[in-house]
Amino acid sequence: MKEQAAAEIIMLTHNRELHEVNLGWHPRAEDVLWQPTVQETKRSQNGALNLRYAHEVKRGALVRMRELIALHTPWLRVRYAF
Predict the structure, then answer these.
(1) Domain membership of residue 37 as a residue range
(2) Measured between alpha carbons, how far is 64 from 75 in angstroms, rounded to an integer?
(3) Which one, 19, 51, 61, 63, has least CB within 10 Å?
């Protein structure tokens, strides 16, 4: 299993409409997901205005995730980080 295992790290892109829907489903999770102070706007290919983590925040989070993986599951390779 360890030889075949691989992780994907995907940083969330969010938008106002999804935020409103999620508030009805799980408002406590939205407290974590909806962080405009560390996110920046991005226009998607379909024209929607989204939020994504600011470049420096995302870089730091990816570094930290790789550190945690190396510490707790050193055999786990990261196949994809976005």
Answers:
(1) 6-81
(2) 17
(3) 63
pTM: 0.73
Assess if residue 71 is contained within a domain. yes
Q: Are 74 and 2 in contact (CB under 8 A)?
A: no
User: In terms of Cα–Cα distance, which of 22, 3, 14, 7 is closest to 69?
Assistant: 7
> First CA to last CA across the chain, in angstroms?
24
Tokens of 2: 């360890």
Classify residue 12: in a domain, yes or no: yes
* CB 39 within 8 Å of CB 53: yes
Assigned domain for 43 exists: yes
Structure tokens at 39: 């996110």
Tokens of 24: 């009805």
**Which two tokens mark 57?**
């925040």
Predicted confidence (pLDDT) per residue in 48-82, tens digit: 888 888 999 999 999 999 999 999 999 999 998 87
